[in-house]
Structure formats: C-alpha cells, structure tokens
Amino acid sequence: MSETVGVEMLSSGVCKVTLIRPEAANALSVQLLEKLKDTLEALAFQKEVRAVVFTGAGDKVFCAGADLKERRRMEEEEVRRTVALIGETIEKVAKLPQPTIAAMNGTALGGGLELALACDLRVAAEESVYGLPETTLAIIPGAGGTQRLPRLIGVGRAKEMIFTGKRITGAEAYLIGLAQYACPLAKVETLALDLAKQMSANGPIALAQAKKAIDNGIETDLATGLELEKLAYERTISTKDRLEGLEAFKEKRKPQYIGE
Ligand code: CAA
C-alpha cells in the first residue's frame, strides 16, 4: 500500500507533514486519515518537534477534503464513522501542543480547509482557491468548519462562504483574515517553513502555554482568560529554559532551549 502521509523532521526542529495522494487531489481517504491520526498522536509527545507544517504533495492542490469517490460506495453507518474519523483527526491537529502552520500549497476545500483552520496559522497561494463547498453536496462542514471559520473571519462572512459554497482566492483569503499570508504558490512552503523555524527557536514550553492560553482564553470571558494566562505563565517560571533565556541575554548569544 502506498504511503499517504509523509513525515520529515528538519534540522530546525520543524516537522513537515505531507498529505500524499496527488492523483486524488490529496483527498482524505480513510487510509490517509488513519495514518494522519497515528502521526499526530506520536508528534504530540515528541520533544524534538518544535513546530509542525502541513502541506500537500504536488503543485496544485493542498487538500480536496473528504474522498468523495470512496464515500459514494459507503452505507450510512460507514459515512458516520468516516465523518467522525475526519473530525477526530482534525481535532488532533488543533490539540497539538506545538505551533502548527498550514502551508496551503494549492486549493483547499471542505475537510482540506477545515484541517487548515485547525492549524494556528495559514499560508495561502494567491492564485489558488479555498472554500467550504459542503452545502453544494447537501451536507455541512462537519470537521470544525461551522465553528472555526466564523471565529476567524466573523459570522457574516463565514455564513456567506458556507451557505453559497463559494471558492475564494488565496489573495481574498488573506484580505479577510482566513490566511495570515498569501504569496505565489511556489513560495508557500518556504514561507511557512521559515515562519515555523522562527517559532521553533523559542522556548517550547512557553509556546505550548501561550497556545493553550490563547485557545482556551478566546472561548471565555476576559477575567477568566486572564486567570488562564496567569496559570500558563506560572508553568514557565520554574523551567530551565527560562533561566537559559536570561543567561543567553546576558552573554549576548542565541538561547538553546531544551523544553525543560
Ligand atoms: N475526492 C476524491 N477524488 C477527488 C476529490 C475528492 N474530494 N477531488 C478531486 N479528486 C480527484 C478527481 O476526481 C480527479 O481524479 P481523476 O483524474 O481520476 O478523475 C483528480 O482528483 C484531479 O482532480 P481534477 O481533475 O478535478 O483536478 P482540478 O485541478 O481540475 O480540480 C479540485 C481540483 C478543485 C480539487 C476539484 O477536483 C474539486 O473541486 N474537487 C472536489 C472538492 C470538494 O468538493 N471537496 C469537498 C468534499 S466534502 C468534505 O470535505 C466534507 C467532509 O466530510 C469533511
């Protein structure tokens, strides 16, 4: 059976995860999803992984979402199981402690865009298209799309995208805040890897705590969020990395963080 998910550890501490089904627009088949889920479960515990970049094989599509050909052959129960598997897998992306970046090196639709929405940042290709076309297939975005998209771009714009199923360009995705960067397709991966490298040089416990404080804080009121921030800060105070940061500053050198 051919490999559907590639995992490459770079010397910078960045792990590149590639969806590999270019013949099927990197669609999320059950086989790919199971491999991706196992990969994510492992990455969450790997201390040497400081940031994760998701990308798609080929030069046209990041991910076309659910495998529609596979789904056509499924009975209702199997569809339910597969939708749950997509949801669980994408939730594992969101719950990774490391910073995550979707290097959307081409079109991302449906579950493909939902995977990107579960990442911390998104880099889009100016000329590619992005959308949640589920209602055009008489289903709804079911892997976080109805929740994460409005939080990111506002309720009105999210409803427009979901109700019409329209596809917007990467340039538009940047303008409405869906993507944090838009650049020519050929530069997407380099830009994303560069951002991830900048993050991977920072204290890993600090990154994980900042991510937790932001993600949990945004779901609550300001006073509770500030309490969560206090707890997250507290977790960094007793670390060796905090002392290393101060030492490196004194010695005018780059800090070497170890995640302890
Ligand atoms: N599932 C399975 N195969 C897919 C696929 C998908 N989602 N999307 C594309 N493919 C296949 C095509 O059938 C084609 O295969 P063949 O050569 O064997 O015909 C191959 O990938 C290349 O596709 P195209 O020839 O269409 O290439 P393109 O560059 O012209 O267009 C595309 C690419 C824009 C992704 C277009 O194929 C497309 O619009 N695909 C459908 C995407 C879609 O509707 N996704 C939403 C799925 S629903 C969902 O994700 C909800 C959920 O449950 C999570």
TrEMBL record:
Signal peptide: none
GO terms of molecular function: hydro-lyase activity
InterPro entries: ClpP/crotonase-like_dom_sf, Enoyl-CoA_hyd/isom_CS, Enoyl-CoA_hydra/iso, Enoyl-CoA_hydra_C
Domain of life: Bacteria
UniProtKB keywords: Lyase
One BP term from GO: fatty acid beta-oxidation
Lyase is among the record's keywords: yes
Pfam families in the cross-refs: ECH_1
Similarity remark: Belongs to the enoyl-CoA hydratase/isomerase family.
Protein name, as recorded: Enoyl-CoA hydratase
